[in-house]
Amino acid sequence: MKFDAMSGSKVGQVAPSLAVTDHKGCEVRLEEFRGSWLLLVFHRHLA
Q1: How confident is the prediction along the chain (47 residues), in pLDDT tens digits per residue?
Q2: What is the 3-state secondary structure (H, E, C) of 3-41?
Q3: Residue 38, C-beta contacts closer than 8 angstroms, at least 6 positions apart
Q4: What is the pTM of this model?
Q5: Which of 30, 33, 35, 40 is the most buried (most CB within 10 A)?
Q6: Are the C-beta atoms of 28 and 19 separated by less than 8 Å?
């Protein structure tokens, strides 16, 4: 997945659809958290 931080998003806009794999290998979709506060943390995995 490629994330472009300079895509022109503004505070208050609806976030685009997003699906990622969590640390347990399960797919998590942003839509599952609609209506809730959510903190997303992105980091590089150095293997």
Answers
A1: 455 555 666 777 777 888 988 889 999 999 999 889 888 777 777 66
A2: CCCCCCCCCCCCCCCCEEECCCCCEEEHHHHCCCCCCCC
A3: 30
A4: 0.52
A5: 30
A6: yes
